[in-house]
Amino acid sequence: MSLASAAAMPIEMRARWFAIAVVLVAAVALPFVTSGYQTFQLSQVVVYAVALLGLNLLTGVNGQISLGHGAFFAIGGYAAAILIVKLHVPYAFAIPIAGVVCFVAGFLFGLPALRLGGLYLALATFALAMATPQLLKFKAFDAYTGGVQGLLLTKPQAPLGLPLTRDQWLYLLCLAFAAPLFWAASNLVHSRIGRALIAIRDHPIAAETMGVDAALYKTTTFGVSAAYTGVAGALMSLIVGFVSPDSFGLFLSLSFVVGIVVGGLASIPGVVVGAVFIEFIPNIADSIADVFGESAKAMPWAIYGLLLILIMYAAPSGAAGAGRKLVAAVARLRRA
Amino acid sequence: MFALTHQLLSGLAMGSIYACVALAIVMIYQATRLVNFAQGEMAMLSTYLAWAMIQAGVPYWAAFFLTVAISFVVGAAIERLVIRRFDGAPVLTVVIVFIGLLVIINSVAGWLFTYEIQTFDSPFPDTARFGAGYISPHEMGAIGVTLVMLALIYAFFRFTPLGLAMRAAAQNPVSARLVGISVGRMLAIGWGLAAAVGAVAGMMAAPIVYLDPNMMGGILLYGFAAALLGGIDNPWGAAAGGFLVGVLENLAGAYLVGSEIKLSVALAIIVGVLVAKPSGLFGRVVVTRV
């Protein structure tokens, strides 16, 4: 972008590009100042952000409720693990392939979902979330999935002799997958297609009268959403070095819902806030548990639950809405 | 033949528990067009309450009826304090609120009672006087308790003025209000009844599946499957659906897929019914004007 065109941009847009550049630079620089474990946590935040982005495209933007996105996270994680461990595919290829597998899975689940209005889709995906761990343990697939034990992966080293620790390399790898996915999602939402998705959410009948092919858009969105969450699952299996059935239970799916609600429904930057939230709240609760005893470990979920209800009651647009209000208030102050 | 009869009968016993859960779900659905995702957790908490009372030395049946009464009050209170604030909100909002309730109740139970698995004694004798081998006394008792409860609920809705007012409030809130029925109070009573019915389901299930904060997960799923199969706007259909799903589950577990992926059977029933016949076996087809 030339300087002249940058100068011609309105101030809000310039501020936005500036903010994006700062965030990107900070995100790349971060692993060089944090400890190994903190870097690992940051990688998890990036992964959760991608998973939440997928769910938010479906639920926030398109209005299809999914309480079962943990299933696609699991499919992505297992697809990548099986490709790497059993079929010896290089991990850089295994991750996008896992995304494609999840796109197909999501598209297929989206077909019956077409016939299910809001509440019923919530029911069906709730059932999917609950059934996932059992399906992953199913004996017939043991040879591939490793059954109850799951699969172990070796964490990759930085290639080309780059002077990076394993954690730093994995973090940058996650970031390298996340950045284009965020860019693509942002473009998608702000395009003609994005407007069609929002129209389907807000008034399906009016959208169809305007010539929007709701069935096609909805199934494709289900596929894209599952692909995002699947890529996140694949990255997660790589940074944790391990997949097992019990890490993909109902509560994983529910924590994704918590993430998009806290961050703000339909907001793209909001998912980062949501990801930070679901990564660090359990840690904080663990440190409180040291003081109050073991049973306080149940606390993150009590907090999650209270927040879900309070946010829905008082601030349905979540952190993103609060951010927008703040920006508007600052702008008013400057004008005054 | 013996094995098959045994599977059928113990399917009916689990089915009676699913029938109770389905009935609780349908009661709330009929009045508010909402599906209560927290129904299972509410029942779980009630069961813990009964367990705590029994541990403290209260005789079983006293604890049973006290729990039902307290559950009624708590259910009505949840409607008044939480759910009412979201009257007329979009489906997504309400689903999220229910999920919030679910995780709060689950973690509070974990906090108060720990995640250790507890045994919960059955009120019925250990040895059967008849039908030995085919069905355990507790299973028979669970079926009996469910049938008595269904009869009581039927009588309540059919023969009492309050039951009539509740049906009116569910069917046509505007007209009900015009004839002087307090629709809000009817909703609270409906929630209370659903919580009480759920508590019975929990107390009947606990001797079979044992007591822990996640005990109702699978049962809730089968309750959903039962409600959808029977028709989510028809309480008697839902109860019938419960027995049917219980038998299906047991037969599928014994002869078809093995017991490890039982929850997938529920998933298949839910998706299958929703896609093939969304109104269920006994439900009405609803036509809405655009």
Distance between the termini of chain A: 33 Å
Radius of gyration of chain A: 20 Å
Spatial ordering of strands, largest sheet of chain A: 1-2
Q: Which structural class matches the secondary elements of chain B?
A: mainly alpha
The major sheet of chain B is characterized as: none
Instruction: Assess the beta-strand content of chain B as a share of residues.
Output: under 5%
Segments of chain A where pLDDT lies below 50 for 5+ residues? none
The residue fraction in helices of chain B comes out at: over 70%
What coarse outline of chain A follows from CA principal-axis ratios? Answer: globular
- Compute the number of strand runs of chain A: 2
Number of strands of chain B: 0
Helices and strands of chain B, in order, run as HHHHHHHHHHH
- Give average pLDDT of chain A, whole number: 85
Descriptive labels:
heterodimer; A: 336 residues; mainly alpha; two-stranded antiparallel sheet; 15 helices; 76% helix; B: 290 residues; 0% strand
Describe, in plain words, how this protein is organized in 3D.
The complex is a heterodimer of chains A (336) and B (290). With 336 residues, chain A is mostly helical. In chain A, 76% of the residues lie in helices and 1% in strands. Chain A is built from 15 helices and two strands. The radius of gyration of chain A is 20 Å and the shape is globular. Chain A starts with a helix and ends with a helix. Chain B is mainly α. Chain B is 73% helix and 0% strand. Chain B has helices spanning 2-32, 39-55, 60-81, 91-113, 137-159, 161-171, 173-178, 183-209, 216-230, 235-256, 262-276. In chain B, helix 2 (39-55) crosses helix 8 and helix 2 (39-55) crosses helix 9 (216-230). The radius of gyration of chain B is 19 Å and the shape is globular. Chains A and B meet through helix 6, helix 12 and helix 14 of A and helix 4, helix 9 and helix 11 of B.
Topology readout:
The complex is a heterodimer of chains A (336) and B (290).
Chain A: H1 3-8, H2 11-29, H3 36-61, H4 69-85, H5 91-113, H6 118-137, H7 142-145, E1 151-152, H8 166-189, H9 192-202, H10 204-209, H11 214-240, E2 242-243, H12 250-263, H13 270-292, H14 299-314, H15 318-335
Antiparallel strand pairs in A: 1-2
Chain B: H1 2-32, H2 39-55, H3 60-81, H4 91-113, H5 137-159, H6 161-171, H7 173-178, H8 183-209, H9 216-230, H10 235-256, H11 262-276
